[in-house]
Amino acid sequence: MGKKKHTGSQLLLLCSYKISPTVLSPTVSVFVDPFFVAPFQSLSSWFKGTEITLWETVHGIKFWEFMNQNPAINQRFNEAMASDSEIMTSFVVKSECKQIFEGLGSLVDVGGGNGSFSRIISEAFPGIKCTVLDLPHAVANLPEADNLKYIAGDMLRGRGTRINRNKVLV
Ligand SMILES: C[S@@+](CC[C@H](N)C(=O)[O-])C[C@H]1O[C@@H](n2cnc3c(N)ncnc32)[C@H](O)[C@@H]1O
């Protein structure tokens, strides 16, 4: 009996993104989870209510507060973002888009999550000093490198003046 062949889309979901960068299972697992789907099933309540966001209508607090208060879900969400970024960054950094980064001395990745995007850039371009700015719960206890640093902060409050001489990824 020959080995079972998988389709391309099955291969994207098969193993952990920590083993292979081209895996989207963390992203799919979060986006089909009831905590994430429930808001989209409550559009009529949101239209009739007074909350600003759909998320507040269903979960009672803003999206990023919810992530801050639910570390396990926050970790899954960050891994979902990271698995998506790993695929995108591999294409961006290894393809003809790489000239975007050539010659840069530094960049700031605003809302960079756990820094997956910046980590790949920092490894591909050791001469670029990468700084990831994200909320404290997103950047806590992440390993830095010589050219990869994390800043815990709020992009809407004040940090901009200290990092405004860099290229900024959002
Ligand atoms: C959709 S995720 C994208 C993460 C990352 N750029 C990636 O592609 O993997 C948005 C990020 O914005 C961050 N964020 C939201 N509000 C923020 C704020 N006020 N200041 C800094 N970061 C914020 C979240 O914590 C989250 O990591």
From TrEMBL:
Domain of life from the UniProt record: Eukaryota
Gene Ontology molecular functions: O-methyltransferase activity
Protein's GO biological process: methylation
One Pfam family cited in the UniProt record for this chain: Methyltransf_2
Organism: Citrus x changshan-huyou
Keyword terms of this UniProt record: Methyltransferase, S-adenosyl-L-methionine, Transferase
PANTHER family hit by this protein: O-METHYLTRANSFERASE
Domain O-methyltransferase C-terminal: 41-157
Name of the featured protein: O-methyltransferase C-terminal domain-containing protein
InterPro entries: COMT-like (IPR016461), COMT_C (IPR001077), SAM-dependent_MTases_sf (IPR029063)
Stretches that traverse the bilayer: none
